[in-house]
Write a structure and sequence with these properties.
21% strand; globular; 9 helices
């Protein structure tokens, strides 16, 4: 089965064109619920033990910003007081997205590095160099098999993978209703919200319908060589957070 979304940044500069409104579009398409999903991902990562984190397909840096905020809150630290030994690579294939991420986490320059990376081929990142690799809502628009292999390569032994991605609602009737909403209502809202820029909302909705179930994605992750693979469904199963370790 081909698990590629058949999209490359050279096909269309959609990333650059939606960078300024990406967060607003996420609010619109998810009715704001994506904030709860990202908060949960941030909690999982912030509460883990690590020194080096690679956030893949970071977009506007929302996940990393929430992780840093969570660390401050958990440790009762004043703003900007996170230990500089904690280093985070914020990466995306779009430079415009990275520019927005730089604005969002500007107060944490001692902890962050920005890199333009392709999730499918992160040759700039050394093998076995990262404690945590995270990717949120990015697997469905790339060749996830290649991206998962790259995540495995760059993780240290014992390192952790954290993924937030579209999933399946276990109740079949509710899942069909959700897909109907996504297929009919969302394109209309997206078209209106982006002044007819169809590629912008198609990018955000890409791959939702054909993405594997939480169980099947867990099996794919396990097949690559990860251990302790598990997942947590959110919002009835609209999305799921998968976690795994490199043996």
């Amino acid at each position: 089965m081909n698990n590629s979304a058949n999209f490359t940044p050279n096909d269309d500069d959609v990333f650059g064109r939606i960078a300024n409104r990406y967060d607003s579009l996420c609010d619109l398409f998810s009715l704001g619920i994506h904030r709860l999903w990202k908060r949960r991902v941030a909690q999982i990562i912030a509460n883990a033990s690590w020194q080096n984190l690679l956030d893949v397909a970071s977009g506007t840096g929302d996940i990393v910003y929430r992780i840093l905020q969570q660390r401050l809150a958990d440790n009762n630290l004043p703003n900007n007081a996170i230990d500089s030994s904690h280093q985070i690579i914020i990466s995306d294939i779009s430079l415009q997205m990275l520019d927005k991420a730089k604005e969002k986490v500007a107060d944490y320059s001692a902890n962050t590095v920005f890199m333009q990376l392709d999730a499918e081929n992160m040759r700039q990142i050394a093998s076995a160099s990262q404690d945590v690799v995270s990717i949120s809502l990015g697997l469905k628009i790339c060749d996830r098999h290649k991206a998962l292999h790259e995540a495995y390569r760059v993780l240290r032994s014992g390192g952790r993978l954290v993924i937030l991605e579209a999933s399946n609602i276990p109740l079949n009737w509710l899942h069909k209703l959700y897909l109907g909403y996504m297929s009919v209502v969302m394109p209309l809202i997206g078209w209106l919200a982006t002044s007819g820029d169809s590629s912008a909302y198609q990018y955000l909705l890409k791959g939702v319908k054909d993405f594997p179930s939480a169980e099947n994605l867990a099996q794919e992750i396990s097949n690559i060589g990860f251990s302790k693979v598990g997942f947590e469904r959110l919002s009835f199963g609209i999305v799921a957070i998968h976690t795994a370790h490199k043996s």
